[in-house]
Design goal:
The structure is a single chain. The chain is of the alpha+beta class. The protein folds into two domains: about 120 residues, no CATH class; about 190 residues, Jelly Rolls. It has four helices and 16 strands. A five-stranded mixed β-sheet has the order 7-16-10-13-14, with helices on one face. It has a five-stranded antiparallel β-sheet with strand order 8-9-15-11-12, with no helix packed on it.
Length: about 350
């Protein structure tokens, strides 16, 4: 696959003043991703092959527990080089197993399998075992401090492509000049996890390994069963500029936040040249159509109607979201102010 990561999340936080729970679904810090994880193929996070390797991840808030589990794993014959600690910052959460304690989850992300058969085998049997460890004797607590976060940004940005983006925009509008065009603004979608944890904001299981951009709130739209009603999504191919390992756009139902159609950056090449064939920077851009019926267009993705959450009915609202995963130099998602936000034009007659 192109990417994987592991991370603990606080799912529901207890609010003492109201004796209730609030969903925040916020990560507890940076991930253990394929560039940072320690495995037999990448000892102590060094360069190498992290795929199909043995790994141990200890998710805990306490230094003493972490040490005891590592010692037990070593006594069982596991090498230290495959052990990783996923720190839960106890200063931000209410830990415990009694009423009033927060609820946690542990999430593994995988993306863009190279071998579809291997993907199906993995889904049927991930090859992972999870143990909940409860000490038999109490010890003094020794909590980890809140980890420092990896810094987004390299100082290199995509802004030199702004004139090319404008040329692409103009060419798209000219090609569909007999349609009514509604241009949808894009904005940052989800805040960083520590902010949402303290502010009780639901950040939907975000990851610091990516950016989250969406069509602006208040601009949701419907997509009826009409060949003259469609989107053109265009922007910078952030993978081609080196700002991420891969990027994508996804069409969501606004009611349930169900992603029902998506295109990854490995499919972007060649799509902008249709509109600006003579622009030397066209390979750094993309332009895809979104419709209910692709009608054979190789650069069009269809939005299904169902069944259930696998589609969105014709009369229900939609929005578009964009992600850019992992800038290799920083081992985290790119900085928002170093990428040009993707854009959407809704065409109707």
């Amino acid at each position: 696959m192109r990417y994987f990561s592991y991370r603990s999340f606080v799912n529901f936080k207890y609010i003492e003043s109201t004796d209730s729970y609030k969903k925040v679904y916020a990560s507890m810090g940076d991930t253990l991703n394929y560039l940072t994880i320690s495995t037999q193929g990448t000892p102590k996070g060094e360069d190498g092959n992290p795929f199909n390797q043995q790994v141990i991840i200890i998710s805990t808030a306490d230094k003493g527990i972490n040490t005891r589990v590592r010692e037990a794993a070593a006594a069982a014959g596991y090498p230290e080089i495959i052990m990783n600690t996923d720190v839960i910052p106890s200063s931000l959460v209410n830990m415990g197993i009694t009423p009033g304690s927060d609820f946690f989850t542990f999430l593994a992300r995988t993306a863009m399998f190279i071998d579809e058969e291997a993907c199906e085998e993995y889904l049927e049997n991930p090859g992972v075992r999870v143990f909940r460890i409860t000490p038999n004797t109490e010890t003094d607590l020794d909590p980890f401090p809140t980890p420092d976060l990896r810094v987004r940004g390299t100082g290199t940005n995509e802004m030199d492509l702004a004139p090319d983006m404008e040329e692409l925009r103009t060419a798209i509008l000219d090609q569909y000049s007999d349609y009514t065009a509604t241009e949808l603004q894009s904005e940052q979608w989800i805040p960083e996890a520590y902010e949402s944890t303290m502010s009780y904001i639901d950040c939907l299981g975000e990851s610091r390994d990516t950016t989250y951009v969406r069509t602006a709130r208040g601009t949701d739209f419907t997509l009826p069963d009409d060949p003259d009603d469609f989107l053109i999504i265009y922007g910078v191919n952030h993978e081609a500029t080196g700002k991420c390992v891969y990027s994508n756009f996804s069409v969501y139902g606004a009611d349930y936040f169900n992603g029902v159609a998506s295109v990854d950056s490995d499919k972007f090449p060649g799509s902008a040249e249709r509109f600006i064939p003579d622009n030397e920077n066209a390979p750094y851009l993309y332009a895809w159509k979104v419709a209910r019926d692709a009608d054979g267009d190789p650069y069009c993705v269809e939005v299904p109607t169902g069944p259930d959450a696998y589609g969105v009915p014709y009369t229900d609202d939609l929005f578009v979201a964009f992600r850019s995963y992992i800038e290799t130099e920083t081992e985290v998602g790119p900085a928002y102010n170093e990428i040009i936000f993707d854009r959407v034009i809704h065409f109707t007659k």
